[in-house]
């Protein structure tokens, strides 16, 4: 949903905000704005200060049969609270955010009224996942500026339309998300080449690495280093690639290749040979060099990054085979799973995806730098 669609300065109700704060519903449905929006779940407790509580999910639905065909029906099954296992009930979803209604612990406990809707702060629950995070965090006694690891970015760019990869977007397949940092997150690839094929994605809407700000690049690099260590511990090396062509949100593909299958040079040769066969000119870029120095913002390109940090770069003019990176990796020379070169052939059920994501989260935990404090 585009940010301009609902004027968050003019909507929202202080009374309902107060009610939601006190009642802590597991689901909060709203329909007044006649549009569909699903916010990331939020906490109902202050971490390390209060007992863990269940999270709340806020869902706004459009009018029934609206001409724009916006979602107006929401199907889900809910187990009544009293029938749930206490631990299961308070389990925090991986994408949980701070409570958008909580202005400051002090004010709340003094019963100070929540500001009227025309004030900016009462409208946060619609889109403002990030802007006030720092300030809210300070209410828990931790100043965002002095905190070395604020968990949310200040204000990630918003997409012009629906996006499958913006973390705050309702289109995101949240069950595939396996780790969330400050500026980036990790998700399992849908129909991945292997069960541990992941994507490094910026939380905000950036089209390519060329557009990333320095702090986001820094975290991308941190994820790369961490994933290399993680996969190495499992006897694999990882190959990364990015295609900035016919895509809107940066997806850095990370594909682990068992060490026993081939060497880094074999991988490099496979890319060079198969590129030649398709008249794709691959340029060798030395380790530690920046794509920004080679590609102009907006220019289409493809590159593959080997586990040595070395990159093979191609400037796309037109008609680049969209599946190229995937096809080379699936080929006999590397993973030897040619029937998996088309991701649509690799799709599994949502249950299986959930199981794989759960397993990855658990395996990755010892390497998770976002947990360091
Ligand atoms: Zn996006």
TrEMBL record:
It comes from the Eukaryota. GO terms for molecular function: RNA lariat debranching enzyme activator activity. Residues 278-370 form the Cwf19-like protein C-terminal domain. One of its GO terms (cellular component) is post-mRNA release spliceosomal complex. GO terms for biological process: mRNA splicing, via spliceosome. SUPFAM superfamilies: HIT-like. Residues 94-115, 133-159 are annotated as: Disordered. Pfam families: CwfJ_C_1, CwfJ_C_2. Residues 157-262 form the Cwf19-like C-terminal domain. Belongs to the CWF19 family. This is CWF19-like protein 1. The gene is CWF19L1.
């Amino acid at each position: 949903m585009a940010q301009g669609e609902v004027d968050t300065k003019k909507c929202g109700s202080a009374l309902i905000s107060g009610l939601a704060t006190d009642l802590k519903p597991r689901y909060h449905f709203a329909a007044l704005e006649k549009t569909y929006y699903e916010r990331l779940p939020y906490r109902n407790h202050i971490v390390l200060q209060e007992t863990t509580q269940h999270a709340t999910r806020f869902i706004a639905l459009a009018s029934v049969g609206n001409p724009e065909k916006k979602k107006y029906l929401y199907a889900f099954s809910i187990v009544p609270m009293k029938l749930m296992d206490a631990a299961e009930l308070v389990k925090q979803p991986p994408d949980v955010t701070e409570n958008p209604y909580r202005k400051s612990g002090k004010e709340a406990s003094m019963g100070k009224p929540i500001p009227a809707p025309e004030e900016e702060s009462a409208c946060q629950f619609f889109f403002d996942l990030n802007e006030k995070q720092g300030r809210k965090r300070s209410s828990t006694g931790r100043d965002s500026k002095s905190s070395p690891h604020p968990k949310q970015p200040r204000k990630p760019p918003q997409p012009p339309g629906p996006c499958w990869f913006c973390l705050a977007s309702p289109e995101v397949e949240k069950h595939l998300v396996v780790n969330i940092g400050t500026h980036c997150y990790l998700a399992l690839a849908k129909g991945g080449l292997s069960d541990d094929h992941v994507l490094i994605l910026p939380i905000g809407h950036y089209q390519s690495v060329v557009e990333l700000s320095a702090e986001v690049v820094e975290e991308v690099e941190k994820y790369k280093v961490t994933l290399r260590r993680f996969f190495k511990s499992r006897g694999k090396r990882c190959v990364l690639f990015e295609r900035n062509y016919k895509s809107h949100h940066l997806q850095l593909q990370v594909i682990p290749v068992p060490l026993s299958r081939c060497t880094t040079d074999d991988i490099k040769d496979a890319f060079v040979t198969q590129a030649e066969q398709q008249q794709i000119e691959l340029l060798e870029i030395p380790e530690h060099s920046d794509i920004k120095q080679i590609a102009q913002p907006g220019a289409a390109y493809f590159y593959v990054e080997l586990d040595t940090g070395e990159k093979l770069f191609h400037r796309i003019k037109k008609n680049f085979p969209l599946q190229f990176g995937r096809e080379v990796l699936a080929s006999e020379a590397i993973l030897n799973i040619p029937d998996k070169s088309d991701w649509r052939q690799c799709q599994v059920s949502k249950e299986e995806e959930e199981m794989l994501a759960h397993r990855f989260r658990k395996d990755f935990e010892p390497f998770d730098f976002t947990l360091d404090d």
